[in-house]
């Protein structure tokens, strides 16, 4: 049995169902991210795990113990908030020691643990400061230490990096992951930032309209998106409509040209399907023989420095592709007729 | 530009005169008890009067008890309204404003009608009962000031997140209210408390009609029977109110964990 086990979780606010039949098993020490746009239900699931919201139905078990009906203060869960939520009237050390004091630990034990935590977050000299005397990044580190100090079974992070500037966000993201690994604590991280989710998670749950659209490793989520939503939400994606010619051999008509996909398809001849491709897998030119080739006209060229993003119009649809900048090869100009190609295996057929 | 400034100063000066002249006159009069010049004789007489000491002491104790009752009543109410029933805020705000709309005399007549000696709960029949009644009455009078200031204090902190943070760290409601919420709205509670103190110290209607020996009726009695002492007493009462106001400012300024430096 998994360490954190969420079964058939549902949540409705009046007639609106915000979480629909959510199931997830998380192993001990795993770092799982809930990724999705705002309003997809990811924070609601997190709040139900924390005990701040009661599920309409379903069950949550932590380490074999049913916690669904347990109040938040008896779940032994650490929580980090987007707004830090440090107690303004307490010093950094008092904030970190708060949970231990509630648990009735002795002064010496609290002082020792607070010292350990301050070292862990790299702020050993700031124990006597008040939260308003710290930067955003420091406050969030303290909030992390405060959540971890009472040795919770599960650590929940609700968009902890959203209020920070870009540079701090990246360094703190890596630090959160390092600390989580060092302590071997099970963690759920809620974010709407796909780069954040992909870069630090063991597994990512992509949520859409209250449903877990796909659960998988970052590699799987990015390279094998299960639904059109996941494909569009995670990374940049070219989506092209194609008509099925022969489902068994995987032949479709794309941009007026018959294309062999080398994979069997669902759907009858003449039916319209969606094909997706990542910009980095498409190249200018025909390339090797074993590739899907499309011809079109350059519609736009965006010079981004090391990368050049080119938009090619293919029979009324657009394909974006990325190429590296090479000083001796200037990008093609708009209006030029070109051929673009990609390996068969990089062409994804998406469910609606 | 300069002309506009002149008008502004003129307006300030006129307003200042309107408020200060009567005070200056009163202060001047209170110093003339002895024929041969200015003296603090009237103040000496008032402060040495055992009745002054007794009534003032009584009112101070009553004011402090009112503040404690107000805090116990208002802080949890305002907190839960903000946290759990934000839709009820206009209703609660309206209710707390009622003591400003309904004259104290109406309230006290209501009390006397309901709690008289021939009623089910004859509070007016005993010393304890009467004091309890007047305490509840004063807590009612302090509602508009206490609720507003506490609510304003709660607005400046993220009540929801702080509560959830404390809960996730194992806290129950009592600890959340006393260790997390109250210290963070302490300055607001204090400003409400000082206003309450100023109101209770000078209150007359409740005290007179419930026949308790507090400072308000003493001032009125003094006004009817003496010449110079009432002015001295009025100046003392003003000084107390101003001291309360000054304390609000001081506490606000020196709150050590406030992020707002003034």
- The 3D shape of chain A can be described as elongated
Biggest pleated-sheet summary of chain B? none
* Rounded mean pLDDT score of chain B: 90
The helix-and-strand class of chain A reads alpha+beta
Q: How far apart lie the N and C ends of chain B?
A: 29 Å
- Give the largest interface: A-B, 32 and 22 residues
Element pattern of chain B in H and E: HHHHHHHHHHHH
Give the low-pLDDT segments of chain A.
none
Low-confidence stretches of chain B: none
Most strands sheet of chain A: 6 strands, mixed
SS class of chain B: mainly alpha
Instruction: Kindly report the oligomeric state of this protein.
Output: heterodimer
What share of residues of chain B is helical? over 70%
Q: Architecture of the largest domain in chain A, according to CATH?
A: 3-Layer(aba) Sandwich
Give the count of helical stretches of chain A.
Answer: 8
- Total of helices of chain B: 12
| Residue share in helix of chain A | 10-25%
Mean pLDDT of chain A: 90
Strand content of chain A: 35-45%
Give the total of beta strands of chain A. 20
Q: Report the radius of gyration of chain B as a whole number of Å.
A: 22 Å
What does this structure look like?
The complex is a heterodimer of chains A (352) and B (262). Chain A folds into two domains: 4-232, Rossmann fold, CATH 3.40.50; 236-350, Nucleic acid-binding proteins (OB fold (Dihydrolipoamide Acetyltransferase, E2P)), CATH 2.40.50.140. Chain A has eight helices and 20 strands. Chain A has helices at 42-50, 92-102, 107-120, 136-148, 166-183, 194-200, 218-223, 228-233, and strands spanning 4-13, 16-26, 31-35, 57-62, 65-66, 77-80, 154-158, 186-191, 203-208, 211-216, 238-246, 251-254, 257-260, 272-277, 283-284, 291-303, 307-314, 317-324, 337-343, 348-350. In chain A, strand 9 and strand 10 (211-216) form a beta hairpin. In chain A, helix 2 (92-102) crosses helix 3, helix 2 (92-102) runs parallel beside helix 4 (136-148) and helix 3 packs across helix 4. The mean pLDDT of chain A is 90. Chain B is mostly helical and 262 residues long. Chain B has a domain at 61-100 and 136-253: MetI-like (MetI-like fold), CATH 1.10.3720. Chain B is 79% helix and 0% strand.
């Amino acid at each position: 049995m998994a360490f954190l086990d969420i079964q058939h979780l549902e949540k409705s606010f009046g007639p609106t169902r915000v979480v629909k039949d959510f199931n997830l098993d998380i192993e001990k020490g795993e770092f799982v991210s809930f990724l999705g746009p705002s309003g997809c239900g990811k924070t609601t699931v997190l709040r139900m795990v924390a005990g701040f919201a009661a599920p309409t139905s379903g069950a949550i078990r932590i380490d074999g113990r049913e916690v669904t009906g347990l109040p938040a203060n008896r779940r032994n869960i650490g929580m980090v908030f987007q707004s830090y939520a440090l107690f303004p009237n307490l010093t950094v050390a008092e904030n970190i020691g708060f949970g231990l004091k509630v648990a009735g630990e002795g002064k010496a034990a609290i002082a020792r643990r607070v010292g350990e935590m301050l070292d862990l977050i790299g702020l050993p000299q700031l124990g006597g400061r008040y939260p308003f005397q710290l930067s955003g990044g420091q406050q969030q580190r303290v909030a992390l230490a405060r959540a971890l100090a009472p040795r919770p079974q599960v650590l929940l992070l609700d968009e902890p990096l959203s209020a920070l500037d870009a540079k701090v966000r990246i360094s703190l993201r890596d630090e959160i992951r390092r600390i989580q690994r060092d302590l071997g604590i099970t963690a759920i991280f809620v974010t709407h930032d796909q780069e954040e989710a992909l870069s630090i998670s063991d597994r990512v749950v992509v949520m859409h309209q209250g449903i877990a659209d796909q659960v998988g490793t970052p590699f799987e989520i990015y390279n094998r998106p299960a639904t059109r939503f996941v494909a569009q939400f995670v990374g940049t994606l070219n989506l092209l409509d194609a008509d099925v010619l022969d489902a068994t051999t995987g032949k479709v008509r794309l941009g007026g040209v018959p294309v062999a996909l080398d994979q069997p398809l669902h759907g009858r001849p003449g039916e319209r399907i969606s094909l997706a491709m990542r910009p980095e897998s498409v190249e200018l030119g025909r390339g090797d023989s074993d590739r899907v080739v499309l011809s079109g006209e350059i519609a736009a060229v965006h010079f981004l420095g090391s990368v050049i993003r080119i938009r090619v119009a293919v029979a009324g649809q657009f394909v974006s592709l990325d190429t590296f900048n090479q000083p001796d090869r200037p990008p093609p100009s708009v209006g030029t007729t070109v051929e673009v190609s990609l390996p068969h295996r990089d062409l994804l057929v998406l469910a609606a | 530009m300069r002309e506009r400034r002149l008008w502004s100063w003129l307006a300030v000066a006129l307003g200042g005169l309107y408020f200060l002249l009567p005070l200056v006159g009163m202060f001047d009069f209170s110093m003339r008890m002895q024929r041969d010049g200015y003296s603090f004789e009237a103040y000496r007489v008032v402060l040495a009067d055992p009745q002054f000491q007794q009534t003032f002491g009584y009112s101070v104790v009553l004011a402090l008890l009112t503040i404690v009752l107000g805090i116990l009543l208002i802080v949890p109410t305002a907190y839960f309204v903000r946290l759990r029933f934000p839709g009820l805020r206009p209703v609660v705000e309206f209710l707390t404003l009622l003591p400003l709309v309904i004259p104290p005399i109406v309230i006290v007549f209501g009390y006397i009608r309901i709690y008289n000696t021939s009623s089910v709960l004859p509070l007016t029949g005993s010393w304890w009962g009467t004091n309890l009644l007047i305490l509840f009455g004063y807590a009612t009078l302090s509602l508009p000031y206490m609720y507003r200031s506490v609510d304003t204090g709660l607005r400046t902190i993220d009540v929801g997140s702080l509560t959830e943070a404390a809960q996730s760290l194992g806290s129950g409601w009592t600890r959340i209210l006393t260790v997390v919420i109250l210290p963070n709205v302490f300055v607001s509670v204090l400003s409400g408390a000082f206003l309450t103190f100023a109101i209770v110290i000078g209150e007359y209607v409740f005290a007179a009609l419930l026949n308790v020996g507090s400072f308000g009726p003493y001032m009125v009695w003094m006004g009817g029977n003496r010449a110079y002492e009432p002015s001295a007493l009025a100046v003392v009462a003003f000084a107390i109110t101003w001291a309360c106001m000054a304390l609000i400012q001081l506490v606000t300024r020196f709150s050590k964990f406030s992020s707002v430096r003034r």
